[in-house]
Amino acid sequence: MKKIALLLLYFFMISCYQQERNCTDFKTGRFEFKQSIDGKEHTTTFIRTENMQIETYEGKTDTAMVRWVNDCEFILEKLHPKNMQEKKVITMKILYTKDNTYTFEYAFVGEQKKMRGLVTKLN
C-alpha cells in the first residue's frame, strides 16, 4: 500500500510540472544551431524575420520562406532549391524554451521520421 501511495504521489508531482514554452520570443532574431555529424560538430547560423530565414552553413548561404502555423509551429520552404531534396518542405515545432534556447522537432512534410535539435538565440 505504501508503494502505491508513493507512486501516486510521484505521478501527481510530475503532472504538475509544465515545460516553459515562450515561442513568440523566438519568432525573429539571430540564431545558432549546432549538430554532430559523424562525430564532427557542425554549426549553422541563421537570421529569421517574420516570413524569411537566411541560413549560413559551411560558408554557403541559403534563404527560405517561413510560414507560421501558430506561435510554436512553422513551415520552411527554400526559395532557390538546387535539387529535389532541397525542394522538400520542412515542418518545425518548438517543443519547449528555456532562457535563450529552444528545443525543436522537425521533419520533411510527408515523412514520418522526426528529428530534434537545440537552437540558441544570439541576440
Automatic annotation (TrEMBL):
PROSITE patterns: PROKAR_LIPOPROTEIN. This is DNA topoisomerase IV. It comes from Flavobacterium capsici.
